[in-house]
């Protein structure tokens, strides 16, 4: 039958698209499980080291490490962690929007901004808007290692030590649950004192072995590295979750369109049959 | 009296619980941490961290360096890699030691001595931990 050839080809092509989105959804789902495990495995370390840093900022040390001293802010550094690939809904767009808002606030206070990017999407975005990108790393894959991000961290730490930046932030997506990911900005340097779980008031300080400078150098560097790495694995889990959700809704939408087209096609077919019958009947009556 | 001990490595939480005492290989020599110890932060050498849970029971972990933080009621070990002492593959440790020694004797000048020495210290400590475990077992 010659009816609705265009509709049939359209249905076929949407079905193909649906197959692809469904496959991507399933791949993302299985990857998400793995990345989530990895995220949870590294969480205790970053949590503990943050706690120690927090204790430290409540101590009254004789030696003040440069990373713990507040300076007047003229220039800030941010490490942006994004995904390498797209097709993950509004994940990166939301992240960049948050950063742009923050950048506007800084600009209005005449604070300049240096950026290091982790992940391909951030590199593209920030070079397009002509931001001052001083370091970038991309194509880290699904199993990033701490060693991959040490380069950009080093750039930022050197800049902080030489005094060219006065604050260091890291921005990544926070994994709330599979359906929700939200951009999160953490100030790394100078170290901010958070709330304490236990009471540590009073004048006290740690004993440092071998020496305060050596230990703090080591500790603070580890701290920055572990927070950035944690951000990276967390962002990875977010990416897979967001992709899974985006691909699921794409498959569902494809299903709806197919249903509608099928209805139109059936109606057209039925109309053609009815018309043919009525023609035959009319022809028979005439004889 | 007990003290809360947390041992975490970059990849996972290794141990969390109450203990009577904790022994760790600090950079200036082995330290024993009892409850109500003064606040302390120290770097760790490669070696064995021993958690004494009670008079009869204790657990060992191997660390290849890291940091130790002491608060009066909490001790945190941030290990670079903390493997359960039982998990160490002796053959691998021996191999690593052999490799490191080879590097030390090879004076061709291309070798990174500091690194080789660190590797050697690590391998020796792993072996010592294993020996101690075996003695206790037999």
Automatic annotation (TrEMBL), chain A:
HAMAP family (UniProt xref): ATP_synth_gamma_bact (MF_00815)
InterPro entries noted in UniProt: ATP_synth_F1_ATPase_gsu, ATP_synth_F1_gsu, ATP_synth_F1_gsu_CS
Protein name from the UniProt record: ATP synthase gamma chain
Location of the protein in the cell: Cell membrane; Membrane
NCBIfam families attached to this UniProt entry: ATPsyn_F1gamma, PRK05621.1-1
Alphabetical UniProt keywords: ATP synthesis, Cell membrane, CF(1), Hydrogen ion transport, Ion transport, Membrane, Transport
Subunit architecture: F-type ATPases have 2 components, CF(1) - the catalytic core - and CF(0) - the membrane proton channel. CF(1) has five subunits: alpha(3), beta(3), gamma(1), delta(1), epsilon(1). CF(0) has three main subunits: a, b and c.
Function of the protein: Produces ATP from ADP in the presence of a proton gradient across the membrane. The gamma chain is believed to be important in regulating ATPase activity and the flow of protons through the CF(0) complex.
Family under the similarity heading: Belongs to the ATPase gamma chain family.
Membrane topology: Peripheral membrane protein
